[in-house]
Protein: SDR family NAD(P)-dependent oxidoreductase
Organism: Flammeovirga agarivorans
Amino acid sequence: MTKTALITGATSGIGKATAEMFADHGINLVICGRRQERLDELRNQLSEKVKVHTLSFDVRDKKDVFAKLENLPQDFSVIDILVNNAGNAHGLAPIQDGDVDDWDAMIDINVKGLLYVSKAIIDQMKERKSGHIINIGSIAGKDVYPNGNVYNASKFAVNALNEAMRYDLNEFGIRVGAVHPGLVHTEFSEVRFKGDSEKAENVYKGYTPLYAEDIADIIYFMVSRKGSVNIADLVVYPTAQASATILNKKV
Ligand code: NDP
Ligand code: 8X3
């Protein structure tokens, strides 16, 4: 039977690549993000292959998240796969110099936003006793690194919530798993460094990083296992990276 996936943060990077990968495999899509024009572009690109619905909301806007996700059009009302991907780092500074607005953004988007979206979708999965939730964590949620502080904390929370969801939703037959990528070349660093492209590009210089397609490939692998198999927790680095702090810039 044709499945439907809802992907947050589908306007760029990992979320967009996952939408493309899913479309290649015949999975219908609800693609979400704040930038409607990018959602429209992606829908135009993919709708020859699968059915695509776009939803523009800020995951921080609790009311709007619930209003939109609880009123999905009939063709998209059954969500088989939820990919909780929307998120970013905002800033990279020692805790004593951190910007409280950046802290709010990371906690509100990466943690609370993920919770709101999950809550809005879990009810229907619980009723059907089936569904698959993929949470995009980070190696930043496994290891703290200097200046990562609040981003680390937000991704440690995603790691904890991934486990917590797996425990609590187990009785409903809902699969829950996380991917924790290392450095992936997306718009992530552009956002972290507030549009400073030179600084952002430097992050990926001198070695081969992961690309969004690499993570999409892994996400598709996870969702395409038979229903009795749940890949619970998957850490993936570029070969050049051994940990959050060890990176071989010659690889
Ligand atoms: P991108 O910046 O390319 O994509 C981030 C996506 O999140 C965009 O589609 C953006 O859409 C969406 N988003 C951000 N803020 C909000 C918001 N307030 N409301 C709704 N959507 C939002 O980065 P990545 O693809 O790299 O990031 C995707 C996920 O992967 C994140 O959770 C990130 O933490 C994680 N990750 C990234 C790594 C990397 O090195 N790149 C490594 C490990 C994890 P829009 O702006 O249109 O709203
Ligand atoms: C993104 C990877 O190492 O920049 O989560 O935190 S890192």
User: Anything to note?
Assistant: The beta strands are 4-7, 28-33, 52-56, 81-84, 131-136, 174-181, 184-185, 210-211, 233-236. The first strand starts at residue 4 and ends at 7.
